[in-house]
Design brief:
The protein is of the alpha/beta class. The chain has eleven helices and 14 strands. Helix 1 crosses helix 8 and helix 7 crosses helix 9. The longest helix has 22 residues. The termini are far apart. The relative contact order is 0.11.
């Protein structure tokens, strides 16, 4: 039986890359309904014309409006909460807006979903929440704290109806606004490739792997669990060199333009403290919630500070899996979307 048989799924921020990938994979299954909840009417209209499927319901709205999201969540079985402000430089200049959406918006979604007795809630976070230095990462880090607190409340109230988990993405390959798209366009036009810093280290995963992670989290674990995919790690220089090879570029000039506001030299998706509780599940890492309460006098037990030996994929260019065909498909979809706007 399909995981979503006769189920109604709500995708917050559903017009984004995650929502589109989820819809393409499951729309033709025996899923009952997919509700696309977002505040971008233009993207909703594009999706409506692209898919032309009665299983899709489009709802305009903002997660900062509790009453609206509460009403939309009626009779929903599963929520994938992807709505967020994600652009690091933009959030640096609008930290309060990032907080409204990423922190308080998440609290609205969780509170409403629990009140509507939604069975599964999977929230999408980012590696930028680990040791955060920018407004986007800080707001996502607090978002994760809100998620854990809600999960703790579910456990303490012995609520067995709703299960709440969250996942943490690396940099998702070839999504809107990603460096891959910029690099590819520059290479194909013969321009120098603009790199913020060649030695910046990033973890990379595909959007299909991101959806796989979300499904894995839904099927496994308990309230408050964090799930992470062991993504490939690479420097920006290695990534650009690979793209040069893929496109057999004549010009291979790299122009270093310096880091943008709030950018890290190295990003990680798992903190040293999380490693202590982490469970290695092959391609995935599960970090169970710390279930201890504040009353330490009654339950005086510390945590063994020896970290688990979890292997991460090495720092080398392993994006051969991310084939030229995949890159071209993503960029072609972006081009078709832009052309439809113009026409």
């Amino acid at each position: 039986m399909n995981l979503f048989t006769d189920k109604t799924v709500l995708l917050t921020g559903g017009t984004g890359s995650f929502g589109n990938t989820f819809i393409k994979r499951f729309l033709d299954s025996d899923i009952k309904k997919i509700i696309v909840f977002s505040r971008d009417e233009d993207k909703q209209d594009l999706m409506r014309h692209e898919y032309k499927n009665r299983k899709l319901k489009f709802v305009l709205g903002n997660v900062t409006e509790y009453n609206h999201i509460y009403n939309v969540l009626q009779d929903v079985d599963i929520v994938f909460h992807a709505a967020a402000l994600k652009q690091v430089p933009s959030c640096e200049f609008a930290p309060l807006e990032a907080s409204k959406t990423n922190i308080f918006g998440t609290d609205n979604v969780l509170t409403a979903a629990i009140a509507q007795q939604v069975k599964h809630i999977i929230c999408l976070s980012t590696g930028k929440a680990v040791y955060p230095i920018n407004a986007m990462g800080l707001s996502k880090a607090l978002m994760e704290k809100v998620i854990v607190n809600k999960a703790r409340e579910l456990i303490e109230s012995e609520n067995t109806t709703t299960v709440l988990k969250y996942i943490r993405f690396s940099n998702v390959f070839a999504t809107r606004g990603s460096a891959i798209n910029i690099f590819t366009k520059q290479i194909k036009s013969g321009q120098p490739v603009t790199v913020t810093h060649p030695d910046m280290i990033r973890s990379i995963m595909t959007m299909d792997e991101a959806v796989d992670l979300a499904i894995f989290a839904m099927e496994n674990g308990e309230n408050g669990d964090l799930f992470i995919y062991k993504a490939r790690r690479t420097t920006l220089k290695q990534l650009v060199q690979y793209l040069f090879e893929v496109y057999q570029a004549e010009s291979r000039e790299i122009k270093v333009i310096g880091a943008r506001h709030g950018e890290k030299m190295e990003e990680t998706i798992l903190s040293m403290d999380e490693r202590i509780r982490a469970v290695d599940l092959g391609n995935y890492i599960r970090v169970p919630m710390d279930r201890r309460g504040l009353n330490y006098m009654n339950t005086y037990q510390g945590i063994n500070r020896r970290g688990n030996n979890i292997e991460v994929k090495p720092l080398e260019i392993k994006v051969k899996k991310l084939t030229l065909e995949y890159i071209q498909t993503i960029l072609q979809n972006r081009g078709n979307e832009a052309n439809s706007k113009i026409s």
